[in-house]
Design goal:
mainly alpha; disordered C terminus
Length: 139
């Protein structure tokens, strides 16, 4: 392993970048900020502080279902900025990004597989420095 393999592109973490080659994504690309960007961290802390004390201080920590809901909300509110390659059906029209469509796909459990793909995208942001530099420079 090389140090450059673990160096993050902090600009991409905060501003977002296109992430592709997503598991089970079938060609979708997602433009996302990292789940660890400053805005996401602030939002997560605010949502956790807003939980009732008995939930925050529960034995074993905050229940996983609650943290999953908070993560889905942060994906919607902060991290997922755009997508490309999402279609209504095979041969059907493209589904353009909009905040309303993002809310449906990220917060409704019927679309959990999409949320899982978006979560992977938000965790990969900033990790491929060489491709990001090439995209930014047009090479």
């Amino acid at each position: 392993m090389f140090l450059t393999d673990v160096e993050l592109n902090t600009q991409a973490v905060e501003a977002g970048e296109w992430v592709d080659d997503l598991p089970d994504g079938d060609g979708i690309r997602i433009r996302a900020r990292s789940l660890n960007c400053k805005l996401a961290t602030i939002a997560r802390d605010k949502k956790v502080r807003a939980l009732p004390s008995k939930v925050r201080k529960a034995p074993g920590g905050i229940p996983s279902e609650t943290m999953e809901r908070i993560t889905a909300e942060i994906l919607h509110e902060v991290c997922i900025l755009d997508w490309d390659g999402l279609f209504e059906s095979a041969g059907g029209p493209a589904v353009p990004y909009s905040p309303e469509t993002a809310a449906k796909l990220l917060l409704d459990d019927r679309y959990r597989p999409f949320r899982d793909i978006a979560l992977v995208a938000a965790t990969r942001v900033g990790q491929n420095r060489d491709e990001t530099v090439e995209e930014a420079t047009g090479n």
